[in-house]
TrEMBL record, chains A, B:
<comment type="pathway">
    <text>Amine and polyamine biosynthesis; ectoine biosynthesis; L-ectoine from L-aspartate 4-semialdehyde: step 3/3.</text>
</comment>
<dbReference type="Pfam" id="PF06339">
    <property type="entry name" value="Ectoine_synth"/>
</dbReference>
<comment type="similarity">
    <text>Belongs to the ectoine synthase family.</text>
</comment>
<dbReference type="InterPro" id="IPR010462">
    <property type="entry name" value="Ectoine_synth"/>
</dbReference>
<keyword id="KW-0456">Lyase</keyword>
<protein>
    <recommendedName>
        <fullName>L-ectoine synthase</fullName>
        <ecNumber>4.2.1.108</ecNumber>
    </recommendedName>
</protein>
<dbReference type="GO" id="GO:0033990">
    <property type="term" value="F:ectoine synthase activity"/>
</dbReference>
<dbReference type="GO" id="GO:0019491">
    <property type="term" value="P:ectoine biosynthetic process"/>
</dbReference>
<dbReference type="InterPro" id="IPR014710">
    <property type="entry name" value="RmlC-like_jellyroll"/>
</dbReference>
<dbReference type="InterPro" id="IPR011051">
    <property type="entry name" value="RmlC_Cupin_sf"/>
</dbReference>
<comment type="function">
    <text>Catalyzes the circularization of gamma-N-acetyl-alpha,gamma-diaminobutyric acid (ADABA) to ectoine (1,4,5,6-tetrahydro-2-methyl-4-pyrimidine carboxylic acid), which is an excellent osmoprotectant.</text>
</comment>
Amino acid sequence: MIVRKLQDIRKSDMNVKSDQWESARLLLKDDDMGFSFHVTTMYAGEEIRMHYQNHQEAVLILKGTGTLEDLGSGITHPLKAGVMYALNDHDRHVVRPETDILCACVFNPPVTGREVHDENGAYPVEADLIRVDATVT
Amino acid sequence: MIVRKLQDIRKSDMNVKSDQWESARLLLKDDDMGFSFHVTTMYAGEEIRMHYQNHQEAVLILKGTGTLEDLGSGITHPLKAGVMYALNDHDRHVVRPETDILCACVFNPPVTGREVHDENGAYPVEADLIRVDATVT
């Protein structure tokens, strides 16, 4: 059994920050759960463009408001506590937080904790240490 | 992209109740994400004994307080918002909610939504329709 506290993770190297978001990784690939589990804050006023070419991700909004634009369908969804979205088809998307948005995120395959979004807004698979201060573009 | 609202799931057959807990399944096996994602309420005053022989599970406490007893080690952990526990080794455990506990749960492999805890407190793998009103024992 693994027991971890978010407040401890936030002070550790399992907490990763960029200019647009920060993410506390509660579980990573090395934990051998078959997924990784993160608590992420997306910062108010940012426009965060993402495209996970190598991962599926589910996001549950816990706090805050904003919008999610699905670039494939062109549909924009409102985000608030209790909304869940799943990128089941490597969907290109943009999140525009109106306030800071706190969310719980699950990735399959699990991220290692060492990758950051690359120039396409994707996480590479099995990336080694890149930069932890990269901006999602 | 899949977008679902917790309030809608709670009114649907993706919301499963027992005497000791209820669970809104935001994502299930058929969603092909490789995991299932639930928002679960464990009721105050219950003693919920569980042993997932066929699944790994991660639980993030969102609200409420209680304790988690790891029957393997004999250690009891306090539960409150921000505590995460992961059953990485099919750990036998007991949760004793002092208040209602709201949590976000991830299962690997994903549950189908039709199984309930069996007499051992486990979810069978690929169970067909059993009873949705069973009590975890």
